[in-house]
From TrEMBL:
The chain crosses the membrane at residues 383-403, 442-466. Residues 105-379 form the Glycosyltransferase 2-like domain. This is Glycosyltransferase 2-like domain-containing protein. InterPro entries: Glyco_trans_2-like (IPR001173). Keywords: Membrane, Transmembrane, Transmembrane helix. The keyword Membrane applies. It comes from Cladophialophora chaetospira.
Length: 496
């Protein structure tokens, strides 16, 4: 299990906390190979990596760090290009391994806390899929997310935005996926290394800023829609964006930071155009040699090296992928895929513009609104919007609140067994289902959704008329001191 942990100017305490949780897992010493993906643009990258390497010596099966060079031609700064560079090291590491195709690659954000259950379940499914018919596993594994660490310490609109983000992802989650299941990973996902190579790795250009979705789409179309998506019922714990500043300036800074994160997320609407281009290439007569030699392209994760084993495995995967029933563009699963893209990249701004336009139109004086059928249609749709909002609120009150509590209780139970509960005692943000604050969260859904969803998406869409490049800003996360003497370790490394 290769675990890639990308970092750019992240606080050492944040990375250490995530690694301590990983180190507490049963499989850590026998199965986890940690790749700290650092950036050359970060002046403290080497020092931070060395500190973490010393702190976690012997805690994992293996641990190493990579430094993604700055200003490589054709690359855009960001998570995807960093992961792409680290993935090259993963391939080099396991190229000559006799069981190369069994390697799994997990990518996770630096602030993520995962339960051991996630990796154990992924491994069980992976082994089952490989033994099923003797073919290489073509499955993307992903957990739902939950913001349960510092939600009670951030401004309400920021908390609501992440609450809606988590709930939206959970809405397409299913414990019994079918052949038409399509879900979009967020922050954490796992793919077999053979599938990574078939998809030619992670893209490094500005079009890949929505790294999680972009890689899912690459794998989806590399397998011509036959990739399986397996949600794993083991949530990934996340932190809300916060600058850590106090007072009015801190309150404004937190909202500004969350908007910047929302803009980065919505900048990923470039993936809708990419998906349309890839969809148009689908043909009912696909030749195997189209993807039998991924080593011939050098646009992504390590495919510029000559590696016979790599080509052999990808060829076998291609044959399994491309031989079978004829492929068609107009399938139910493709329709589900584009419905997910519509929900992510169109619906937020579409709803906002429709509401604004209908409100303005209804306020206009006679005789502009004298058409009876139009007036009836606008009245009906206004009722439908109220009903939709009511059902969404019921979904959160009945289902999400129970989900949130179950996530916290599961994480607290595992941290107690691992002896980390006292250290993380302040990182459990409980919610009361019918409290006044919770009810106000639901009342303010439209406000937060507009500020951190519709507005940044509209800005991204308009900006794409001129450019597809965005300055990648790391989301501000809370900093918590740990009992280990980080300053002492840093001083020792500097002295050396």
């Amino acid at each position: 299990m290769a675990i890639v942990l990308p970092s750019y100017k992240e606080e050492t305490e944040m990375l250490e906390s995530s690694l301590r949780v990983l180190a507490s897992h049963k499989l850590a010493r026998t199965s986890y190979h940690i790749f700290l993906a650092m950036e050359e643009r970060d002046p403290n990258a080497t020092t931070v990596a060395q500190i973490l390497m010393q702190l976690f010596t012997g805690k994992f099966r293996e641990m190493q760090w990579t430094v993604h060079p700055a200003d490589l031609p054709g690359e855009a700064p960001g998570k995807s290009s960093n992961v792409s560079w680290a993935a090259k090291q993963v391939e080099r590491k396991y190229l000559n391994n006799p069981d190369w195709s069994s390697v799994l690659v997990s990518v996770m954000d630096s602030d993520t806390h995962l339960l051991s259950q996630y990796f154990e379940t992924v491994l069980a499914y992976h082994i089952r899929n490989r033994k099923g018919d003797g073919t290489t596993d073509m499955t993307l594994y992903m957990p739902p997310i939950v913001f349960d660490r510092n939600a009670s310490e951030v401004p309400q609109l920021v908390r609501i935005a992440d609450l809606m983000w988590s709930g939206a992802g959970l809405s397409c989650f299913t414990t019994k996926p079918t052949a038409s299941t399509v879900a979009i990973p967020t922050a954490v996902y796992t793919v077999p290394l053979a599938l990574v190579c078939l998809a030619r790795g992670w893209d490094t250009g500005s079009e890949a800023i929505g790294e999680d979705m972009h890689m899912m789409l690459k794998c989806y179309f590399a397998t011509h829609g036959r990739m399986k998506i397996r949600p794993i019922a083991s949530p990934a714990s996340q932190c809300n964006v916060t600058t850590g500043k106090g007072g009015v300036r801190g309150w404004l800074a937190d909202h500004s930071a969350r908007y910047a994160q929302g803009l980065r997320h919505m900048w990923g609407c470039l993936d809708t155009g990419n998906a349309l281009r890839q969809w148009c290439k689908i043909s009912s007569n696909v030749e195997v040699q189209d993807q039998s030699s991924p080593a011939s392209e050098a646009s992504s994760a390590g495919c510029e090296l000559e590696r016979p084993r790599h080509v052999e495995i990808c060829l076998r995967l291609s044959q399994h992928t491309l031989h079978g029933p004829k492929l068609h563009r107009f399938t139910w699963r493709n329709l589900v895929l584009f419905s997910r893209l519509f929900e992510a990249h169109f619906l937020p701004v579409h709803l906002c513009l429709v509401l604004s336009a209908s409100t303005i139109y209804s306020a206009l004086p006679y005789p502009i609104v004298s058409c009876p059928s139009l007036a009836a249609a606008m009245t009906l749709t206004s009722y439908l919007r109220v009903v939709g909002y009511a059902f969404m609120t019921m979904y959160f009150v009945i289902f999400y609140e129970g989900y949130h509590r179950a996530c916290i209780e599961a994480r607290a139970s595992e941290m107690k067994k691992a002896g980390l509960y006292e250290e993380l005692a302040g990182e459990f943000s409980y919610r009361r289902r019918l409290s006044f604050i919770t009810m106000m969260d639901y009342v303010l859904f439209p406000v937060s959704g507009t500020v951190f969803g519709s507005a940044p998406l509209l800005q991204a869409i308009v900006s794409h008329f001129w450019t597809d490049k965005l300055v990648y800003l790391v989301s501000a996360k809370p900093i918590k001191a740990t009992p280990i003497g980080l300053e002492e370790h840093a001083a020792k490394i500097i002295d050396v």
